[in-house]
Specification:
The complex is a heterodimer of chains A (114) and B (115). With 114 residues, chain A is mainly β. Chain A has strands spanning 4-7, 10-13, 19-25, 31-38, 42-49, 56-57, 64-68, 74-78, 87-94, 104-105, 109-113. Chain B has strands at residues 3-5, 10-14, 19-21, 24-26, 33-38, 44-50, 56-58, 64-68, 73-78, 87-94, 103-105, 109-114. The chains are: A mainly beta (114), B mainly beta (115).
């Protein structure tokens, strides 16, 4: 039982390049989330998917797109990377739909945009 | 909109001493509060949560948190700190709307435990 996995672990991009961050969970969770972590700002929600087939914007969605490929996988795409997108990206998942539910996090992807 | 505040960027404590990491919240409706810990170069790990019931919540690794409705606080505590507790701690509040259990996080508090 791997929990939440993310690939890649590290990535360096040049301004304007594109890339996709992958996330998968094996806990049969309904909801999945993408966050970015920046020093002094905590974690901020980029996009989330309440259930398979749905996606919604979070607090900081500009410059990103997402795809809920199936129940297990939720990808985050940067179409044209900018230095402001240098950050650590975390994927999380949970069953959703209840107030008692806990989110489980992946190990993160450290992205640097030059 | 809900929010949480962690007023201390860093807390320093000697091993064996009690520790407190502060969190205050602002929500409309009932608060659903969480504490997570992040060790270096790792993802966030769940510590404990308050949903309802007893104001003192016990969690992983000997941590507990005290919910205080009148002071809108949810401080994390441990009676005796360990060097291995040194990490980044986040308080979070659940968004009360929608079907997804979205969380709003505080800015984090770095706990440094020294010998």
């Amino acid at each position: 039982n791997a929990g939440v996995t993310q690939t890649p672990k590290f990535q360096v991009l040049k301004t304007g390049q594109s890339m996709t961050l992958q996330c998968a969970q094996d806990m049969n969770h309904n909801s999945m989330y993408w966050y970015r972590q920046d020093p002094g700002m905590g974690l901020r929600l980029i996009y989330y998917s309440a259930s398979e087939g749905t996606t919604d914007k979070g607090e900081v969605p500009n410059g990103y797109n997402v795809s809920r490929l199936n129940k297990r996988e939720f990808s985050l795409r940067l179409e044209s990377a900018a230095p402001s997108q240098t950050s650590v990206y975390f994927c999380a998942s949970n069953f959703g739909g209840t107030y008692t539910d806990t989110q489980y996090f992946g190990p993160g992807t450290r992205l640097t945009v030059l | 909109a809900q929010s949480v505040a962690q007023p201390e960027d860093q807390v320093n404590v000697a091993e064996g001493n009690p520790l407190t990491v502060k969190c205050t919240y602002s929500v409309s409706g009932n608060p659903y509060l969480f504490w997570y810990v992040q060790y270096p170069n790792r993802g966030l790990q769940f510590l404990l949560k308050y949903i309802t019931g007893d104001n003192l919540v016990k969690g992983s690794y000997g941590f507990e948190a005290e919910f205080n409705k009148s002071q809108t606080s949810f401080h994390l505590k441990k009676p005796s700190a360990l060097v291995s507790d040194s990490a980044l701690y986040f308080c979070a509040v659940r968004d009360g709307t929608g079907t997804a259990s979205k969380l709003t996080f505080g800015t984090g508090t770095r706990l440094q435990v020294t010998l």
